[in-house]
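Comment thread on ticket #2218

A.B. wrote:
> Attaching the input chain for the structure job we discussed in standup.
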Amino acid sequence: MQRYFVQDAFNENNEVKITGDNARHILKVMRMQIGDQIIVVQNGIAHICEITEAGQEVVARSTGETIQSPEMPLKVDIACGLPKGDKLDLITQKGTELGMHALIPFAAERSIVKWDDKKGEKKTERLQKIAQEAAEQSHRTHIPEIMNPVSFKQLLSIFSKYDAVFIADEEDAKKEERTRFADKLKKVYDNESKSILLIFGPEGGISRKEAQSFIEAGAETMSLGPRILRAETAPLYALSAISYEFE
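C.D. wrote:
> Ran it. Output below, let me know if you need it in another format.
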């Protein structure tokens, strides 16, 4: 069954109205009709619904059945230094498939890309649409929020919101003796932490000055193995490791 996210709550008749792109997809692309079933995700719950009206708008009534949520048992936000090209598209799409809760781009010291504030809103909207499509495809009940880029100082200021903060530091990967990321995840699990922030640099990695500031603010380094990963690969590696550890 096709999955659609809606903002409006179900009414007293257990019905919900579906409009906009979702309605056009149901009617024009999928060519669904009254009586067909779809999955409607509202407020993090996936409801099995039956289409009761299929005009310019679509109305769907809940059957009373819901589908178990596939979300990770903890929230994992990804902060990445602004990378070149379309790498944010890839991180958004694949990160959503792998369980990312939110994406926070930030202006890193080694970021070559400079965010254009005039065009930035449209870029964020496009990334948010990519996240929604990936959430529907991967049968999630949460669409990751794609944040507008923040400054380095703004990123530091949100550390207190998280139970644990890790930075991917390539210098840590070069050490002969490294603390395995799995071991640090085990410690997080033991403390029953519910939210994690993972920080990744752009091409060229995190600068020594930035790394020191992150650590002084309470972050820990995480080793993602002895190989140096690309800016778009590292977040996906870490999300996969967390999924393996917790799911």
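A.B. wrote:
> Thanks. Noting for the ticket: Residues 107 and 151 are 5 Å apart (CA to CA).
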